[in-house]
Amino acid sequence: ILASAYMIRCYLLGYELTGNQHYLEQAEYWAWTGLPFVYLRKPAEGEVGAYATIAVLGATNWQAPVWFGLPVQWCGLVYSSALFDLAALRPKGPWEQIAIGIARTGLRMTFPSTDAERQGLLPDFYHLQAQVSDGPAINPGTVQANLPGVFDLPPLFTLRRLNRDQILLIAPCDSYSLESDDSQIQLVLRGWKSGPFQIMLSRVDAPPQSVRARTLDSASIAKPLEHDYHPERGHLIIEVPGECELTIAW
Q1: Number of domains in the chain
Q2: Contact 170, 159 (CB under 8 A)
Q3: Is residue 155 within 8 Å of 174, Cβ to Cβ?
Q4: Is the same domain home to 236 and 130?
Q5: pTM of the predicted model, to two decimals?
Q6: 21 and 137 share a domain?
Q7: Residue 61 and residue 169 in one domain
Q8: What is the pLDDT of residues 22-77, one digit of tens each?
Q9: pLDDT confidence band for 165 (50 / 70 / 90)
Q10: Which domain holds residue 211?
Q11: What are phi and psi of 62, to 5 degrees?
Q12: Minimal CA–CA distance to 239: which of 192, 178, 195, 176?
């Protein structure tokens, strides 16, 4: 399932960099290849079962341990993260539902607060029949990375291709494009922070004539923003005041 996850991410990056629809289609193809590793029905009685993910259809070193039926959820959570990114571009598919299911199951597998030494950590594997987490306790980062999607919150990070000259937006927030043409880009940015944060546009071939933002309050007035343009790299770095409507004009 990790191979499926990495190939999804690889082709999504290819699509964002080039706009080539073939790469997006290939990302979806590799998403389908991960489904044989996901329990889409409850395989056992108990709270944990549906959307548990096994890592491989086989055994380590062809001998042991045998991984058939033994979920290794951290591997599935990497796949889940890739599916969230795919779902943003292919919203009509089943990808968001599957991604949320895998992430929620990862939360249920996490060692409970009653386990003083391992509480909050992710188990290496899970016994479905016994409903018990087991194996070395590992970093829960693969669960945490998916929580925004589970709770319908802005993503921690966005890479988005904008229409104008294939400009790329890199930002610690969600973004919605209002308008994009040869003369300007207009975006709505929704992030986690209530205060300022920085975003970067890549592949910018000329300094902007103006960069302005207004808060999402309808009565607010757009104000000019400080920004740094790096012509040798084509980077435009902007500090925005928080959630806002941003307009960049050339």
Answers
A1: 2
A2: yes
A3: yes
A4: no
A5: 0.90
A6: yes
A7: no
A8: 999 999 999 999 999 999 999 999 999 999 999 998 888 888 788 888 999 999 99
A9: low
A10: 158-249
A11: 65, 10
A12: 195
